[in-house]
Amino acid sequence: MGRKLTLVHDVALTPTGRRSAKRISKRDGILATAAMLFNEQGVAGVSLGEVAKAQGVGRASLYHYVADREDLIFQCFLRSCEAETERLDLAAEAARPLDRVLQYLRESLAPEAAQHAVITDLAILSGEARSIVQKARARNTQRLASMIGDGIEAGDIRPCDEQIVARVLPAMVSYGLMARQWMDPTGGGIDPEAVADFVAYGSAADPGVDFDCALNAESFSRLHAATFGRKSLNDMRIEQILMMGSKLFNERGYDAVSLEDVAAALGATRGAIYHYLDDKEDLLRRCSERGHELYEAFINAADAHGRTGLEKTAIVSHLNSQAQAGSLQPLAAWMAMDALSPAQRQRYRQRMRGLLARTEQFAEQGVQDGSRRAHDVRSITVARAGAYLWIPKWKPELEPITERYLADEIVALFHKGLAAR
Fold this sequence. Notes:
Layout: H1 21-41, H2 48-55, H3 59-62, H4 69-91, H5 97-109, H6 127-154, H7 162-178, H8 192-201, H9 225-228, H10 233-252, H11 259-266, H12 270-274, H13 280-305, H14 309-325, H15 342-369, H16 377-386, H17 391-394, H18 403-416
Helix pairs in contact: 1-2, 1-4, 4-5, 4-6, 5-6, 5-8, 6-7, 7-16, 8-18, 10-11, 10-13, 13-14, 13-15, 14-15, 14-18, 15-16
C-alpha cells in the first residue's frame, strides 16, 4: 500500500513493556463502532467523521488509532478474521465434528458478533492489505472445510461438498448480522440455536424426500426471447448494461467498479454507457430495481409451481443460487446500502422486508401442511437468504462447478441438514 499497515494487535507499550489497556479499549471501541456502521450502511457509505461522531470523539482522535479510512476498513476486516479464528478455536473443543460446526455457528451468531464487520468488498483495499485479509479468510475457510470433512470421514456428517458448505455457512452468518436492519424489530433477532438446529437437521419433515428443480434461472432474463417479446433494442441494451453492472458490483463491490469498467466488459465506449445512464449512482439504482424484480419473479414462480411450502422455499433458494452462480446475477441484497440516499435506503429496506416476509410465509405454510419441521421460520428464512448472496465472490475459487450442482448442494443442506442419519 506504500505505507505501514496498522495491525489490530499492534498496541502501545508502557515503559515497563506492558500493553496499554486504555489504548486497546479505545481502539476496540472504535473498531466495534465502525463495524456496526459498516454492517448497517455498507462500507462505502460510512466516513471517518460518521465513525467519530458515533463513537463520541473528535475526528482528529481517530488518527491516533488509524492512518486513514482505508486503514480503518483494513483493521475492521482483519479483526473480523481474527474473531472468526477464535470462534473456530472454541468450536474445536467439542467432541464430535458436527458439534464443532454447530458451535461455530452459535458463536458466530451470538449478539457480540455484531461488533465485527462483515467482509463484503475486499476490492476496496489496496494490494498488501487485501492480501493479508484474503489469506486470513482462506485459512478460516479451509479450517471449517476440514471440520466438515472430518465429520464426513467419521460418519457424523452426511456426504456433501465440504468446500461449498464451508463457504455457505459463513455467508449465512454474515447476512444474519447485516439483516437485522431489514427485520421487524418487534419480532426479535436471529436465534442462533434455531439456525444451528436447521443446519444440523434441515427443514424437511422427511429428509429422504429428493427435490429436483425443473425451473432454469436463465429463463427469467429479460434478454430471453420468450420473456422479452417485442421490447425494443434500446431496452435490450439497457438490460445488458444492468446485467453486467450487477455482475461487476457483486464480484468487486460498488467502490471498485466504474462505468468505464462496465463499458470495457461489454466492449462498448464510455459514451455509449452514458447514453443510457446519468452516472454510476444511476446504474446502482437501476441494478437494485432489477434485482428486486428478479427476486420477486423467483418468489412468484415458486408460488405457482411449488406443491407444498417446502417445495416453494426450495424453488426460491434454487433459483437464487442458480442466478448468482450464473450470468443473471441479481444485485446482491447488501450492495445497495453502500451508496443510496437515506430515503432510497429506507425504501430498499421496506422492499427487502416484503420479500423476506413472503418467503417466511412459504415456510409457515410448509409447517402447516406437514412438509417442514416446526421451527423458528423467521430466523431460518434470513439465514437461508444469506447462503447465495456471496456466491459470485467465492464460486471462482471452486471452478469448474455448474450452477445446478451448486444450487443442488445448497438446497440439500437446507432440506437434509448436515447430520448423518
